[in-house]
Write a structure and sequence with these properties.
The chain is of the alpha+beta class. The protein is built from eight helices and twelve strands. It has two domains: about 130 residues, Lipocalin (Beta Barrel); about 100 residues. The protein is elongated and about 70 Å long.
Length: about 300
């Protein structure tokens, strides 16, 4: 599973243990540089939990409202960067930016976040629907290419609950780059060579052995295709590592390696490889990042 994957057992546990809800209308104000203040107002039902009826953020400069965003149900937080500050020049323009992270209050879904620059006015430069894996941590905001602008790393939830549980669901990494006044997914910064091929082929060999065992148990690809969620001990369950590795390879632009990995990992005596690949591609194309993945892997689809 990708090292950036944040499992949500703590969130789920907090919700299950949440005491009886009470009114909790609250306004928080965070002063920033150059006269800016971020005001976060929550209204509704909340008591040491995650759910409230609505959240509204107002951006003020010298006491004057410059922008307002209503997030609806859930809770909004101002992201603190690695240096401990709440605003940072992310765009190398001499103007600080802020990131507002919104969590709707489910067991592990959903997250989205907005990025604003705070110059003479407040300008929104990104709206990101990050679904299950969108909580922003300091390590997610990083200058990958050392050009002075900071990239945002998020995870794609396209494979969440696809044939497996949430905990087993692969989540490939996506990089957002500041381009022409907005943050956008960046194929250029996602593309990278796969250096540890020895480990890759070792994992393929292990999967091949696992699929050989499935073949002896009577694995049926049609059964796998039919069910949305299959228990991990079901004889018709394919190991999620199969499409986890393929997705990681494709999101880094390693088309030929992804195809070669599947060829080596799939046990020759097990029927259904072509159908698996068809279903894998279909699921991949349902991603909000399918355009970037296609750009990284011309000819794969």
């Amino acid at each position: 599973m990708h090292p950036y994957l944040r499992l949500s057992s703590l969130v789920l546990g907090a919700i299950l243990l949440c005491p009886a809800l009470a009114r909790a209308d609250e306004t928080q104000k965070q002063p920033l540089a150059n006269g800016w203040v971020v005001e976060i107002k929550t209204q509704g039902e909340e008591l040491d939990c995650f759910v409230c009826d609505s959240s509204r953020v107002t951006l003020l400069k010298n006491g004057k409202q410059m922008a307002r965003q209503d997030f609806g149900e859930g809770k909004v937080e101002l992201v603190r960067f690695a240096d401990g500050k709440y605003s940072k020049d992310l765009t190398a323009t001499g103007v600080d930016s802020i990131i507002l992270s919104h969590f709707s209050g489910g067991a592990h879904c959903c997250f989205d976040f907005s990025i604003y620059t705070l110059g003479k006015t407040a300008q929104k430069i990104a709206d990101v629907d990050a679904a299950d894996f969108g909580d922003i941590f300091p390590q997610d905001v990083i200058d990958l290419d050392n050009n002075g602008t900071f990239e945002i790393q998020v995870l794609d939830d396209v494979f969440t609950y696809w044939k497996v549980s949430f905990a087993e669901s692969p989540a490939p990494l996506v990089v957002w780059e500041y381009q022409n006044g907005r943050y956008r997914p960046s194929a250029k910064l996602m593309k990278k060579a796969w250096t540890d091929k020895k480990a890759l082929w070792q994992q393929a060999a292990e999967l091949n052995a696992a699929l050989k065992v499935l073949q002896t148990k009577g694995f049926d690809i049609q059964q796998w295709r039919t069910f949305d969620l299959i228990s991990s001990d079901d004889k018709h369950t394919l190991p999620p590592a199969l499409w986890e590795v393929m997705a990681d390879l494709l999101y880094a632009g390693n088309t030929e390696l992804a195809v070669a990995f599947l060829d080596k990992a799939w046990y020759q005596g097990l029927k259904g490889k072509s159908l698996f690949l068809k279903e894998f591609k279909k699921q991949l194309l349902s991603s909000q990042y399918s355009g970037v993945v296609k750009k990284l892997n011309p000819g794969f689809f």
